[in-house]
Amino acid sequence: DGEFRVPRGAMYANFRSARVSDTADNAAAAQLYVSLLQDAVNEYTYPAYLAGLNFSLFSHSRGISLKVSGYNDKQLTLLGRMVESVASAELDTHRFDNIRAAMIRQLENTKTARAFRQVVGDARQLVLSGQFDEKELIAALQGMSPESVEAYAQTFWSSTDVDVMLNGNYQASVVRGVESALQPLLAKSRTPQPPQLQVVKLAAGEKLVYSAEVEHNDAVLFWYLQGPDDSMTSRAMSALSGQVVSADYFEELRTEQQLGYVVSAFSWPQLQVPALVFMVQSPLADAAHLQAASRQFLEQMAAEGAVDPDQFERHRSALLKEILQPHKNISERSEYFWQEIARRELDFDSRERMAAAVSSIDFADWQAWFREHVLERPASLAVVAPGAKGVLPAGDAVKSRDSFKSEHESYQRR
Questions:
Q1: How big is the CA angle at 135 (ends 129 and 138), to the nearest 5 degrees?
Q2: What is the pLDDT of residues 274-308, one digit of tens each?
Q3: Burial status of residue 326 (CB atoms within 10 A of its CB: 0-12, 13-18, 19 or more)
Q4: Is the pTM of this model over 0.85?
């Protein structure tokens, strides 16, 4: 990198495996295994941090990733030490019980999180594959032993493929050094492709309601309106709609009607599947009232003259500025490149294509899209915490997460 002109860089490696998000047992085992590895390497990663090097290791729905960043001159040394520790790690049975107990406590504490945060978690579990609730993960962790996690680790490392990226102040020879350093972790035989991640596909006009188990007196509405498809045009329309309605929604429901102290409207794309979300947590109104008030707000926004061409242009300009905001440092740029690789956007131009799609939307087209896909025939899923009042919005009840997913088609993501 010749722009930021600092001796820094970022090395990323993502070991992708089907053995991370296919079951709650494997998801919990991956998280526990990573926590044990982090504990094992702390002895030398902390001194490295003091010397300007950063190291992270984490599990996610596609696998286990590691990152080394900061001053580039000793990164390869740190990477080699880390790989050596992972490849030869013997799990400390004394630390095992403490780390597992800490993970279980953290999952149990989720029930004490703010109500709207719990509902957001439920929404993610409904819409996305590879997501599991706290009860499932706790049950899985409680049944684990050092031996079972070691067995999981062997299965994981024998079933991975790997994505690697270097961005920053590197010579070409470093690439060969990274390849050599990672060899002990690479599968020795051809591995199956990791499963595709999935996003549930809702149908236009569908009106679904899911009641989340949240122990709180407040009612919470998380109203998810999915875009009609995952095209760049729909993604741009959804993002622009979120920009247009966000401030007015807060003003109307929080300031004017004083329905809740958490009020937000925003674009919420999941794995590039666009959606708008209207979210309120209220100690006063029930969830049905919150959705009715949100619906009334949308009708007002779609009315003639509610948004004029000048306002629309200001919102579009603000969104374009946000999309094309320059990266401030090598870390931001590296994160962008890494996300492009994860999305398989290997031309590294998704920001520019998104900006072009937003620029091509005219006022009349946006109005028509908003009326059809947000107001008249939205693909609607209301995830709600009933609260003390216990009143749910009208709609077809989602009885279980598994049946909901099995009854719907899905968008597929590698």
A1: 105
A2: 999 999 999 999 999 999 999 999 999 999 999 99
A3: exposed
A4: yes
